[in-house]
Amino acid sequence: QVQLVESGGGLVQAGGSLRLSCAAAGRTVTSYNLGWFRQAPGKEREFVGYSRWDIERTYYADSVKGRFTISRDNAKNTWYLQMNSLKPEDTAVYYCVAGEVFTTSAGGYRYWGQGTQVTVSS
Predict the structure, then answer these.
(1) Is 98 strand, coil or helix?
(2) What is d(CA 80, CA 64) in angstroms, rounded to the nearest whole number?
(3) What integer pLDDT is reported at residue 90 of this predicted model?
């Protein structure tokens, strides 16, 4: 089995930064697309971004482009979401994901983390 364990969530003021981590156990992630989704209260699950396994390229939702950065450390089986210039509307539960296809759709990801709360105060 593959288990994704998230960490790094918390409370931060608007304009601040936060770094989320996701560590995978049970399988190496070298050949997986690694990404992040989020879900705010009362809203649909939203794609944040992902990192391709085959080439060094990342994709981001327009809402976070220029502020968030995804990186991966295959040797540590871990990937990260660096969030800068945070806004109150970034408040959500953030989920790390891993999958075998290139997609922005939640249904395309096979493995999900437990979620970590990010709260941005104004």
Answers:
(1) strand
(2) 15
(3) 98
First to last CA, the chain: 40
Measured distance CA(9)–CA(100) in Å, rounded: 26
42: left (phi over 0), alpha (psi -120 to 50) or beta: left
Residue 9's CB is within 10 A of a number of other CB atoms, namely: 18
89 CA to centre of own chain: 16
DSSP state of 65: T
Q: Quick check: helix, strand or coil at residue 19? A: strand
pLDDT tens figures, 31-64: 999 999 999 999 999 999 999 988 889 999 999 9
Q: Which residue has the tokens 């990801």?
A: 109
